[in-house]
Amino acid sequence: MTKINTSLHSSRRKSRKAHFSAPSSVRRVIMSAPLDKELREKHNVRSIPIRKDDEVRITRGTNKGREGKVTSVYRLKYVIHIERVSREKSNGQSVPIGIHPSKCVITKLKVDKDRENILERIAKGREEKAKRGKKDDA
Q1: What kind and span of H or E run contains 42?
Q2: pLDDT per residue over 63-102, tens digit each?
Q3: Would 103 disulfide with which of 5, 60, 113, 132, CB 3.0-4.6 Å?
């Protein structure tokens, strides 16, 4: 049996090294978040790399259910910071809590020309894959 994707390693050690030393462009793709049901139906896209002005709902952890706008995407730490999701330090200062994008659901997209192109490209790929699946069945 041969490997399906030869560019990825099955070794735990090498996979971790690739993950933690990944360049910013690769981190962007890793930091993708799923879309909620309405957006998924509308755009025919399951998930998309998260961006600064998207609105999200947290689905896991102690902040589950809280919603807000993404204030920053911290690629170095693989986390996003969300409006009003913060904690108090002992000196009274407020610091944002980092949350991994996979533990959120995008409820509202900030759509511009580039984002529109990305959504169209993904949807087109999904449609072609569905067509190919139907051809195989027939």
Answers
A1: helix 37-43
A2: 999 999 999 999 999 999 999 999 999 999 999 999 999 9
A3: 60
Long-range own/partner contacts, residues 13-18 (CB < 8 A, 24 or more apart):
none
| pLDDT at residue 1, rounded to an integer | 64
Residue 33 token pair: 């978040």
68 strand-pairing partners:
56
State the residue for tokens 């902040």. 63
User: Pairing relation of β-strands 79-88 and 94-99?
Assistant: antiparallel
The encoded tokens of residue 9 equal: 């390693």
Length of the chain: 138
Report residue 93 as tokens.
């200062």
Is the Cα torsion angle 21, 26, 28, 33 positive or negative in sign?
negative
- Tell me the one-letter amino acid at 69: K
Long-range Cβ contact pairs of 17-26 (< 8 A, separation 24 or more): 24/75
Mapping DSSP to helix (H, G, I), strand (E, B) and coil, where does residue 100 land?
coil
